[in-house]
Design the sequence.
């Protein structure tokens, strides 16, 4: 699946629901199904700043590709991270660095989050982007 | 005084009558009727308050206490009659009422001005309750830093009760002041202020009461409480934002140096030195919130008539309290055998569910609640939590809304677990 296809998949899934409550239910399911994250990796250097709930993001590299795993103490946040991981994990540095993350706008997620959580989302995106430019 | 005398609230005897005074309650969010349960953060405003604010801007806008023209006289009249109204509301003298921009500003005024007296007097300790809002902690920390004072913490027990039996042992001739909220914005329990004051005064220590939540739910009589300072915000009792009150005993106001310097707070100004106006004007430097402050009058009128009219408020409180306590999944903070000591402020956590998730789901169901630390980080630490969910009710919240809230929590927990 290309990056564009992965993004389109998320946008399509999200638009299946009219009601925001149902979209959240979908995010909650994603959060519950997120691959377990080892307690030992919940360290301060993996903690993303600027979220009301705590979010840890880990990045592993294989050649030029970045693989992400993450966790949060809040389930909806986990769902949002799960969305990001399903799109961006396994992509090359170049793909991530050149992406504008505008699919977030097209699913209307940012406007429907509380301002604190929207800030958190921006922090998560910036962290993912940060890994793509790190050497 | 046309804007105060329209008797808008005369016919309020039912909850429908009350609700009809608050236009915002008719709106919906996400296509669902709004259920506003974040009243402890700020209350909604009735038509009478908005009319007053508009009238002040449209008809009576002029700077107070300054000019001889008609508008200035009217504006000054409205402003000073608000002072008289607030004084009678608290059972104080008008000269003991200082207008500020809110509780935070009131407490900062005391921490700076009264704090300077304490420092000059060699006092070195400040006693603060563990359950205080950051507004009643940080100004004192700043004072302590400036003067090498230390903070002592009066604890709360597991149920949220202040451990006042420990207070006497904490007081000494080094103690500058005891700072405590009448009602914590998290726990919602009414603290025994009169008793705290009696204990503190027996050692000659004055008491500041943060009344931001207390004034909403209690009949406040500062003479009966005998507290030295009482601070509250207008926006939590249905008045305009940016309005606030500091009550202080006259003797303190006379002794305290000014906090801010500027216009209106002076008697004479010379480069060789200035003299100051008498209290309370000594503490009202610069142009005041002259349009907003008069809204305290219709706001207090509304508060009184809702208190008199609303039998539903008690029933709602008892129902919500009972439902939350009975639910084994929920841990409620601030519990008591005697419900007359509980205000309708309910903070809780659900085992295995993040407070913010719960708040987000409730929001999508049309219910506005608060989640997080609620400006009381030390109290969150006391209970070992990162935050809580808080629902706070006002007299305009119906039993139907309360029932919807309780069933929504159940639904949200099922979704999230
Ligand atoms: C107990 C308490 N103290 C102080 C404050 C601060 O009030 P304000 O922000 O209106 O100054 C609040 C309100 O948030 C409060 O609930």
Sequence:
């Amino acid at each position: 699946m290309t990056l564009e296809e992965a993004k389109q998949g998320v946008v399509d899934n999200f638009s299946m629901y009219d009601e925001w409550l149902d979209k959240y239910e979908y995010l909650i399911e994603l959060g519950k199904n997120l691959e377990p994250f080892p307690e030992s990796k919940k360290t301060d250097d993996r903690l993303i700043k600027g979220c009301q709930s705590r979010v840890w993001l880990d990045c592993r590299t294989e050649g030029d590709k970045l693989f992400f795993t993450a966790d949060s103490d809040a389930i909806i946040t986990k769902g949002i991270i799960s969305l990001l991981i399903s799109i961006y994990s396994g992509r090359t540095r170049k793909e991530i660095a050149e992406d504008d993350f505008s699919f977030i706008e097209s699913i209307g997620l940012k406007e429907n989050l509380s301002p604190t959580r929207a800030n958190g989302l921006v922090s998560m995106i910036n962290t993912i982007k940060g890994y793509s430019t790190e050497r | 005084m046309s804007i105060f005398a329209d008797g808008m609230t005369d016919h309020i005897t039912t909850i429908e009558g009350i609700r009809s005074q608050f236009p915002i309650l008719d709106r919906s969010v996400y296509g669902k009727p709004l259920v506003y349960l974040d009243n402890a953060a700020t209350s909604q405003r009735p038509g009478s308050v908005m009319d007053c604010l508009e009238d002040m801007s449209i008809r009576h806008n002029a700077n107070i206490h300054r000019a001889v023209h008609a508008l200035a006289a009217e504006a000054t009249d409205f402003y000073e009659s608000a002072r008289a109204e607030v004084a009678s509301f608290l059972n104080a003298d008008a000269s003991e009422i200082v207008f500020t921009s809110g509780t935070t500003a009131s407490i900062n005024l005391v921490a700076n001005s009264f704090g300077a007296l304490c420092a000059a007097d060699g006092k070195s300790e400040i006693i603060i309750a563990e359950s205080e809002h950051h507004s009643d902690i940080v100004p004192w920390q700043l004072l302590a830093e400036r003067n090498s004072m230390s903070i002592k913490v009066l604890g709360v027990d597991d149920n949220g009760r202040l451990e006042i039996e420990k207070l006497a042992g904490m007081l000494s001739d080094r103690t500058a002041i005891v700072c405590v909220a009448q009602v914590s914005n998290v726990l919602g329990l009414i603290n025994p202020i009169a008793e705290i004051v009696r204990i503190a005064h027996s050692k000659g220590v004055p008491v500041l009461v943060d009344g931001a939540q207390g004034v909403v739910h209690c009949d406040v009589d500062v003479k009966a409480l005998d507290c030295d300072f009482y601070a509250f915000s207008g926006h939590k009792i249905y008045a305009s934002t940016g309005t606030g009150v500091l009550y202080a005993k006259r003797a303190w106001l006379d002794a305290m140096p000014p906090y801010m310097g500027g216009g209106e707070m002076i008697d004479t100004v010379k480069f060789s030195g200035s003299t100051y106006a008498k209290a309370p004007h000594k503490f009202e430097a610069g142009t005041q919130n002259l349009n907003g402050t008069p809204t305290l009058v219709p706001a207090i009128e509304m508060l009184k008539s809702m208190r008199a009219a609303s039998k539903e408020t008690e029933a709602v409180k008892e129902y919500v309290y009972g439902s939350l306590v009975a639910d084994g999944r929920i841990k409620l903070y601030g519990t008591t055998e005697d419900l007359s000591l509980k205000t309708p402020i309910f903070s809780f956590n659900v085992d295995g569910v993040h407070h913010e998730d719960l708040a987000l789901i409730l929001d999508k169901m049309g219910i506005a609640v608060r989640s997080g630390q609620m400006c009381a980080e030390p109290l969150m630490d006391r209970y070992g939590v990162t935050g809580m969910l808080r629902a706070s009710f006002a007299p305009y919240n119906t039993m139907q809304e309360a029932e919807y809230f309780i069933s929504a929590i159940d639904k949200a927990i099922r979704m999230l677990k």
Remarks:
- The longest helix of chain A spans residues 115-133.
- Strands of chain A lie at 55-62, 65-72, 91-92.
- Chain A has one domain: 3-133.
